[in-house]
Predict the 3D structure of the following.
Amino acid sequence: MGVLPTRPGRHIPFHDSQERRTHTVTSQATRSIEVLLVEDNAGDVRLTKEAMRESKVIVNLSVASDGEEALAFLRKEGVHQCAPRPDLILLDLNLPKKDGREVLAEIKVDTDLRRIPVVVLTTSRAEEDILRTYNLHANCFITKPVDLDQFITVVAAISEFWFSVVRLPT
């Protein structure tokens, strides 16, 4: 680290590009990140938990296994009265009880919930699903890889991007 002189008594620190250092990027201060995973497949839930455990930040992962439970969680209804407000929602489209598209639509028209980023993470590759979810203001659409290692890599990339690069509202 070097110092650039400015006005008398003031200096600006800088990093010398010739120095090779590894920096751990942490964002969102030191608080943990709250994530709501809306997923009905137990295997995908387990893999997502495993990938999030390897994140550079502390992630508290809550799981809703259907669309109705997801909305109850977000609205703090019933058994979810003390549920934390998620910083990010990972949403599957093909859900029991209430479809993920319906859940997304309800989230994005709710003034209290619409600023929560929603990442659609689904097996669908249908152009119709991609267009519809973006029209409903999804923040991104990701098709789940079939390969287990690739699935973990994708979830880790989601974690890295949303928790280390993006600045989320508090």
Summary: DSSP finds five helices and seven strands in the chain. The radius of gyration is 19 Å. Residues 1-29 have pLDDT under 50 and may be disordered.
